[in-house]
Amino acid sequence: MSDPTFKQRARYWFDNTMSKGTKALIGWLTVITLALTAIGALFLVVVNDADGFVGTLWKSFIHILDAGTITGDDAGGPAMVVMFITTIGGLVILSSLVGVLTTGLDAKLEELRKGRSLVVEKDHTVVLGWSDQVFIVISELVEANESEKRAVIAILADRDKVEMEDEIRTKIADLKSTRVVCRTGDPADPDSIGLVNPSQAKSVIILTSAEEDPDAQLVRSLLAVTQGGNGIKCHVVGAVAEGRNLPAARLAGGRAAHIVDANDLMARLMVQTCRQSGLSVVYTDLLDFGGDEIYMVEEPGLFGRPLSQALHSYRTSSFMGVLTKEGRCIINPPTSASLQPGDKLILLAADDSAIVLDGSRPVIDESVIVARADAGNRPERTLILGWNAMSRTILEQLDQYVAPGSVTDVVTDHPDAPEAVRKIGPTMRVQGLNFKEDDTTDRVLLESLNPGSYNHIIALCSDDVAPQLADSKTLVTLLHLRDMAQRSNSRFKVVSEMADDRNRTLAQVTQADDFIVSDKLISLLLTQTAENPHLSQVFGQLFSPDGSEIYLKPAEHYVRPGVPVNFYTVAESARRRGETAFGYRVVALAKQAPNYGVHLNPDKGLQFMLQPGDKIIVLAED
User: Fold this and answer.
1) Which CATH number fits domain 6-114: 1.10.287.70, 1.10.1200.10, 3.40.390.10, 1.20.1560.10?
2) Pfam families given for it (predicted)?
């Protein structure tokens, strides 16, 4: 092949120059303008040298910039022709310049719309991904950042920047002191993640993807964040949808990541809640930023003293446990143990400013304290209506809680349930497992099951249909159960799962004991952990069947009902039983939103009255 000609080389050079964008086009128009000005001036000098070259140069330049200037020319003949040609050339140049500037401005606006500029912030919270969880996370972070003047949340998702901002404004009316910045990009691409400046963030929250395999997306995002060269120093939180992917996710995230198993966590909560009405309200209050929160506090004034003193040393804060100097979290520790230097108290308080050491002596009324042991566990009957990915874990967890001789019946028309129940049946240690394949929305079927004979009923959302349809079927089942309970003048202990938090209000009509919204609770947990990574250990222990957990126990086991009492006395009664009390529930208010009768972290000095059937909320081993 012969060497390129001069024309080809020139054309190649010109094409490369033009490909540089708006700046190159403006540069070429400037060069053409100057060239046309010089040529016009040169011709004017030749035909009419009255103004000299400098004056003629200026005159030519004015004709190029302003076409109306030609109307004031009084020269005739060749000079008029030169000025006319120069003016026409100027019109072409100015039209081209306007077109270039308009195109460049549109391109710049489009670039800004795409959200591809760097987020120049520090100590902000980064959210990777987009789902319904994002609105819960933003709402909680807004509450958490209310005391900060310039809090920032940076969101990176594979969606249009303006659409994200509009949807956030629509669903979250008041952002208070928090500013939300959206960027468009792949939340698993290191270059895109770099746009939200994670290297200077205080935490990174990875949302559960809506893709077919959300755990694969999570692992990719973890690798992109922690191994992508962004210099991550903050902690990263996320949740896997399937427990078998937890080791891979934790390996991808490294030490900086706190990864939870969403299905396992919700299954544990479902089992605990079905056996204790009101527990989901307690967990929601602990997990959100709207009420009382868990704080880690170092209290040098209590070093070397028994933890029983720490229990009564805070009037407006509730003692829950200890975070040792080695980083080990102990919930409901023996109160005879002493607090060591470097240890931190785990306290429940309305705000960190409310944690004040009370030097006064607590007032404990010995006359109302009841010394009564709990009744032993008895065999239970549990009915599970529906099936989803966490059903297997629910059965495994039930087997760890119920007494020998208990029976669990599963009724569902989910296609995966028969084979799953067949495999898990032989692994049950203390409970019997029965299965019936049928439609849980069928009234005749529900009546044949005699739901009043069960100690606990769990209604699950099926995951083989769309979330809204799953919630609709669950609502139909709950309404049937409510009607059956009213007709038989009895009460069923029902715990239900909602896929969408917006349907929880509708579900209140069914009068079930508790509603669990999986996505909401997982979102709350991730947000709390992002703000305080030590809380992952606290909630890990609370949700585990080993060690101490949250229980709602009869108030008459602790103090005499119908007698004025303060919470110092209630806490002391619980301490003598090896338990830690941090709230109570008034059963008469169990149907009233938003607290449903639950009072966490009450003022220990104020008196109140408990009635038979009310509950004390405690941390206990059983």
Assistant:
1) 1.10.287.70
2) Castor_Poll_mid
